[in-house]
Amino acid sequence: MEFRKISSVITAAVLALSLAACESMPTTPKDEQPSPQPPEEQTTTPAEQPTTAKEECKCPAPAKVPKRMDVVGENEYVRIIPGDVVMKARIDTGATSTSMTAIDLQEFERDGKTWLRFYVPDGDGNRVEITRPLLGRVSIKRHGAQSVKRPVVMMTLILGNQEQTLKVNLTDRSKYEYPLLIGRNFLQGMLMVDVSKKYHQGIPARPKTINK
């Protein structure tokens, strides 16, 4: 009996020591799991909004304001260059071209080109010689008569403040009251005609330089 008691005591002591040893041994921690990280913020660049191009205004262009035109009468004084002669002229909106009196027309050659020599009255009973290159001939219709061909030259005409160099056809107008007839090729876009007026623009001034 005594032996059993001693054995029990020894067994209990061994158990106690084993328990104490277990408690004193350091516990090996489990592998630490990384703590979950919050997701990184992603910078999202906002999508560019398509720019709406402004539509160009396709408005009609404003109408051009017509420039102020000089008024001329039914009859006017016109200075012709070369020659520097002032003639009485009839203003005729029904005529397409301008016609001037000329007498003793003579063709001649100069530098391989055809020129024309002719004479115009100066209003004082004299006549002035003019030479111009011959540009050609134009067919002129006449009321109640057959068409005729007239020689054409370039002349500078001055009426009031208007000076133009244009084609002029030549014919003998000595039987007419006016040695010069101004047609639409001089008037168009430049002058308005008031048939109630006569010699409204007066005698045109001489140009500073006269080209012969």
UniProtKB/TrEMBL annotation:
Where is there biased composition of kind Low complexity? Answer: 40-52
InterPro entries tied to this protein = Asp_endopeptidase, Peptidase_aspartic_dom_sf
Q: Which residues form the Retropepsin-like aspartic endopeptidase domain?
A: 71-201
Q: Does the keyword Signal apply?
A: yes
Look up the signal peptide feature and give its range.
1-23
SUPFAM superfamilies cross-referenced by the UniProt entry: Acid proteases (SSF50630)
This protein's superkingdom? Bacteria
Keywords, comma-separated and alphabetical? Signal
Where is the stretch described as Disordered? Answer: 25-58
Q: Under which name does UniProt file this protein?
A: Retropepsin-like aspartic endopeptidase domain-containing protein
Organism the protein comes from:
BD1-7 clade bacterium
